[in-house]
Design goal:
InterPro entries: DHS-like_NAD/FAD-binding_dom, Sirtuin_cat_small_dom_sf, Ssirtuin_cat_dom. Keywords: Metal-binding, NAD, Transferase, Zinc. GO terms for molecular function: metal ion binding; transferase activity. This is NAD-dependent protein deacetylase of SIR2 family. The structure is a single chain. By secondary structure, this protein is of the alpha/beta class. The chain folds into two domains: 141 residues, Rossmann fold, CATH 3.40.50; 113 residues, SIR2/SIRT2 'Small Domain', CATH 3.30.1600. The chain has eleven helices and nine strands. Strands 3-2-1-7-8-9 form a six-stranded parallel β-sheet, sandwiched between helices. Strand 2, helix 7 and strand 3 form a beta-alpha-beta unit. The two termini are 13 Å apart.
Length: 260
């Protein structure tokens, strides 16, 4: 297929991924069965999927009850993910970089050494004010909240606070103007430097739709448009269309089928 020929003809590969990649890997924010299994109290109250909790204001105990379970499941699972492992294998020894709107750390956890996550990472947390540009590893606060989580109520009693000011904290992800991107900024600079290197570039965009097109989809199109010889392969089950002015291939399929 053309995708394989283009991959074989490339020297460098930028993998640009949206939520569709992690959903195909088993971390689907619309999965109602998994939600009912993990969050029985929220399910009894009428909620049906994780995407409904994004930005939903909750009392602190419910907030950290939900987020400790969610982050432990999606970010701190130590097992390798077969789909991400397969993607890494397909890229092979080619010089590569990953750009993702996902905040689950799955690229780094599955063998990708160079990754920029401009939307943040569940693996860190920050002050909600914020009183400082500093961020901290979140594993300890997630584990502490999880240890006090009661599935029957959906609440956790160990509520974390800012190490500096004692105020509320949240995960270091882009949900509003309080987001502190400083920890991830060096990865963005490294990507810009990497893009200036030699060799024919292939951008493989996976599962990036129109929920946040300004993070992955549109910047990728602009990048390919601006770099002589660059090509784009867009793998997307629902939104595979590509602009007519790009040297681009639209693959309307599930990424698991393509990589298989």
């Amino acid at each position: 297929m053309t995708f394989e020929r283009w991959l074989d003809g490339s020297d460098r590969v930028l993998v640009a991924a949206g939520a569709g990649l992690s959903a195909a890997a088993g971390y689907d924010y619309t999965d109602t069965e998994r939600f009912a299994e993990l969050f029985p109290a929220l399910h009894r109250n009428g909620l049906r999927a994780r995407h409904q909790l994004i930005g939903l204001p909750l009392p602190p105990r419910l907030l950290w009850g939900y987020w400790s379970v969610h982050v432990n499941d999606i970010r701190f699972d130590p097992a390798p993910n077969p789909l991400y492992q397969r993607l890494r294998s397909v890229i092979g020894q080619r010089d590569n970089f990953a750009l993702t709107s996902n905040v689950d750390g799955l690229f780094a956890r599955n063998g990708f050494a160079d990754v920029w996550s401009p939307q943040g990472d569940y693996g860190r947390y920050q002050c909600e004010t914020p009183c400082t540009r500093e961020t901290w590893e979140s594993r300890l606060i997630v584990e502490a909240a999880l240890a006090t989580y009661d599935p029957s109520t959906g609440e956790a009693t160990a509520i974390p606070s800012c190490p500096r000011c004692g105020g509320p904290v949240f995960l270091n992800v882009h949900k509003g103007p309080e987001y502190v991107p400083d920890h991830h900024a060096p990865d963005g600079r490294r990507l810009r430097e990497w893009l200036g290197g030699a060799g024919r570039l292939l951008v493989v965009e996976i599962g990036a739709g129109f929920n946040t097109p300004s993070v992955i989809r549109w910047p990728v199109e602009s990048l390919v448009r601006s770099m002589p010889g660059a090509r784009l392969v867009r793998i997307n089950r629902d939104d595979a269309e590509v602009p007519a002015d790009l040297d681009a291939l639209a693959v309307r399929a599930d990424v698991a089928e393509v990589l298989a």
